[in-house]
Amino acid sequence: MANLEKLVSMEDLRRRARRRMPRVAWEFLDSGTGAETALKRNRERMDAVTMVPRMMRAARTPDTSAPLLGRTWTAPIGVAPVGLQSLMWPGIEKALAAMAAERGIPYCLSTVAGESLEDIARVNPDFWFQLYAPTQEAARKDLIRRAHDAGAKALVLTVDIPRSSRRERQRRAGVGMPPKTTPRLIADVLSRPSWALATWRRGVPTMRTLAPYVPAGDMKTMAEFTAKNLGHDLTPEAVAEIRDLWPGTFIVKGVLHPEDAEKMVEIGVDAVWVSNHGGRQVDIGCAAIDALPGIVAAVGERTEIIFDSGIASGADVARAVALGAKMCFLGRGFVWGVAALGAPGAGHAEFILRDELSNVMSQLGCHRLDELKERLA
Ligand SMILES: Cc1cc2nc3c(=O)[nH]c(=O)nc-3n(C[C@H](O)[C@H](O)[C@H](O)COP(=O)(O)O)c2cc1C
């Protein structure tokens, strides 16, 4: 077991995760698209957000609790949907879902995750379900019905995949579903014994939630199905139809323009999730953190604002909250935790993020999250 006292930041978890994951899985997780300018821009623009500390405020034990969608969470930190997670670390979805339930933070399962939504509901009855809407009406309606029957507390419709992205780095690394069995892949897997052993114990990863709609069931057919049928060709009318099918909390994920946010508010969403998909879709797109203030100004009074893309520390959470986010999600960050340490890494990542956030708040002289905006430089 690793010495947790030496894994004190998310970057420490990232480095250890990289050493323990097969290269092909790492490249899938870590990559952006194109020349990865959007990925780098997310980081650079986040770093450009600075705050002016106030002193003599006796803020040793700040309150990180975050109200969102009728519930108070322990911190404005959530687990974003990440597809094909079981490829990155076997059993990761259940580890993250259980950790989120125990720590009182939101957890969102991907449509293309390795576990079925019904199994995740047993581990975390408050889970949210992210929908890549299938183009076939029957599959679309059935997925929504299943999420409802399983008790999902929110439906998160992802709208930022009008088309599969080119993801050049993934292609160079031979990322595919299933990855081609080449001598290089075999050497890659054998050089990562903890991953290989865990995968051997749990079996080859697959997309369990989608299994009923892809009768052949093998990974190749499944991957072709997702590339062809999921998430594309959405219009505001199609979003409104899905809204009407879902009786509960409805969130749209992947919004960057204030007018798109306006449209979603007109449709009746409960929250707008500002995101550039972690820089994975369009390389000349703006940094997500740069889109946040405009969307907060446009619709922040009428709906709740959720944020992701580029959050890699508790300080980043403080930055996004200061700019108006009610909740910040991490995609890659939580994967680093589990890949670095196995299931206990889920809680260790959450601990680092919350502890960093709390410490930053103290240093800035903030007792509550809503004071952070007053510290913006
Ligand atoms: C490997 C990977 C797979 C992802 N899969 C999904 C997905 O299935 N559904 C979805 O809505 N977003 C998906 N995302 C986007 C994340 O939900 C989130 O928007 C993004 O990771 C945030 O950026 P961050 O990684 O910098 O935190 C994925 C991201 C990564 C890195």
TrEMBL record:
The active site is at residue 277. Its cofactor is FMN. GO terms for cellular component: plasma membrane. One of its GO terms (biological process) is aerobic respiration. Residues 2-377 form the FMN hydroxy acid dehydrogenase domain. GO terms for molecular function: FMN binding; L-lactate dehydrogenase (NAD+) activity. Keywords: Flavoprotein, FMN, Oxidoreductase. Glyoxylate binds at residues 132, 167, 277, 280. FMN binds at residues 81-83, 110, 130, 158, 253, 275, 331-332. Belongs to the FMN-dependent alpha-hydroxy acid dehydrogenase family. This is L-lactate dehydrogenase (Cytochrome). It comes from Albimonas pacifica.
